[in-house]
């Protein structure tokens, strides 16, 4: 692949994450408006939020690992195409059950594509900047989240709540075509990974169980926080006294901080110390949530603090897959990221339900942000085990040579 085509491929792969970020936020932004449009109470959507997450886990665990064997392009293009179709179909929903079905199918399609996008970006990146390039590509997630939140009032004004799904659906279909034309049909990992059976099973045996456990645990706990925040933040902020539109804009603005935090954290993984980098990032997140829970609502102060907290959760979704490129060899990347995504769905599944429980119990914004500090603290502690996990690959490569 020529340098120009390589850069084009990385930009398009980043577009897949932009699509995911926008799609993740679309449902959260639509929910506060569906009560007036369809008569559906916001608190009835807890399982709808989890439908996308369960689908991503199923697609990541069952379908994505085959990119290691049969090539990444087919999995990525098929996933983007199906995501576009199912997202567009969500506009036809008028019941909670219909929303659940379409979001679950959308999640399976996303799960098929995303681990292969991360793995391919690692293969296209130079070794010394692998984590940074992977993070730059996955920076599309907070970018998509931010775009959805900031422009939600204008998008809804043009086409109602349905427009929140038309935009990412149409974008996904166009992206699938461009990726098919740009990506090579075969990849090194696919051509050099012979054998039969399920490649992901090796992650649950020695020596890879330790690095996978560390990676998956941080990914799952951060996912709980990410979906707790992204699912309910546009609903919780109005409870603190902000208008619906201002709450949506704040929820979007704070995502931009995730771009910078994610790139900085990934550069620290590449060029400094992975363990210390992640511990500092998650520790700062916990401190920001505690500060919000203890302070009176103020748009400026809360936006700054939530930029560290919510932005850090989005950054974790960028930096942790980048760490994966150092924990595992290329032949296992799709499997490791795909299975990590599946395990992470356990946390992600819990996130929206925790938020719903807090809202149903009328805990209010203070309890909500206190709850968000707990997963950040746990991730900071798990990050201390990263050096031992990194040592596994070094020992295996030394033995093989």
Key words describing this protein structure:
16 helices; 401 residues; mainly alpha; Growth Hormone, Chain: A
How would you explain this protein's 3D organization?
- The protein is mostly helical.
- The chain has one domain: MFS general substrate transporter like domains (Growth Hormone, Chain: A), CATH 1.20.1250.20.
- 82% of the residues lie in helices and 0% in strands.
- Residues 187-196 have low confidence and may be disordered.
SS class: mainly alpha
CATH superfamily: MFS general substrate transporter like domains
The total tally of domains equals 1
Give me the strand/helix succession: HHHHHHHHHHHHHHHH
C-alpha-based Rg, rounded? 20 Å
Average pLDDT value? 86
What is the CATH C-level name? Mainly Alpha
Q: Would you identify the CATH architecture? A: Up-down Bundle
Report the count of strand segments: 0
- At the fold tier of CATH, the topology name is Growth Hormone, Chain: A
Looking at the structure, what is the overall shape? globular
How many alpha or pi helices? 16
Largest sheet: number of strands, sense, barrel closure = none
Helix content: over 70%
Low-pLDDT runs: 187-196
First-last Cα distance: 28 Å
Q: Per DSSP, what share of the residues sits in E-state strands of 2 or more residues?
A: under 5%
């Amino acid at each position: 692949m020529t340098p120009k085509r390589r850069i084009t491929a990385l930009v398009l792969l980043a577009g897949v994450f932009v699509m995911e970020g926008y799609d993740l936020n679309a449902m959260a932004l639509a929910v506060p408006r569906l009560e007036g449009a369809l008569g559906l109470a916001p608190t009835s959507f807890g399982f709808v939020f989890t439908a996308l997450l369960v689908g991503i886990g199923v697609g990541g665990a069952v379908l994505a690992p085959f990119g290691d064997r049969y090539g990444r392009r087919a999995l990525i293009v098929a996933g983007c195409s199906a995501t576009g179709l199912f997202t567009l179909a969500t506009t036809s929903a008028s019941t909670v059950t219909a929303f659940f079905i379409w979001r679950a199918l959308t999640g399976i399609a996303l799960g098929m594509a995303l681990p292969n996008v991360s793995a391919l970006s690692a293969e296209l990146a130079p070794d010394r900047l692998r984590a940074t390039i992977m993070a730059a590509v996955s920076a599309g997630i907070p970018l998509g989240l931010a775009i959805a939140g900031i422009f939600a009032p204008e998008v809804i004004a043009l086409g109602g709540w349905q427009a929140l799904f038309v935009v990412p659906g149409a974008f996904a279909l166009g992206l699938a075509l461009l990726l098919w034309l740009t990506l090579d049909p075969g990849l090194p990992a696919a051509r050099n990974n012979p054998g039969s059976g399920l490649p992901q099973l090796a992650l649950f045996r020695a020596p890879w169980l330790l690095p996978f456990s560390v990676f998956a645990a941080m990914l799952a706990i951060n996912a709980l926080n990410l979906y707790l925040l992204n699912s309910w933040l546009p609903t919780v902020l109005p409870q603190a006294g902000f208008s619906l539109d201002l709450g949506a804009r704040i929820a979007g603005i704070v995502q931009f901080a995730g771009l910078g935090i994610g790139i900085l954290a990934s550069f620290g993984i590449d060029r400094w110390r992975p363990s210390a980098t992640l511990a500092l990032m998650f520790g700062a997140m916990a401190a920001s949530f505690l500060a919000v829970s203890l302070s009176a609502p103020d748009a400026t102060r809360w936006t700054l603090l939530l930029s560290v907290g919510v932005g850090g959760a989005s950054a974790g979704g960028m930096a942790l897959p980048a760490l994966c490129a150092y924990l595992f060899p290329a032949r296992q990347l799709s499997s490791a990221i795909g299975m990590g995504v599946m395990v992470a769905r356990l946390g992600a599944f819990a996130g929206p339900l925790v938020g719903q429980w807090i809202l149903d119990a009328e805990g209010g914004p203070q309890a909500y942000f206190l709850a968000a500090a707990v997963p950040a603290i746990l991730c900071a502690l798990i990050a201390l085990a990263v050096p031992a996990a990194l040592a596994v690959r070094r020992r295996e490569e030394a033995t093989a040579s």
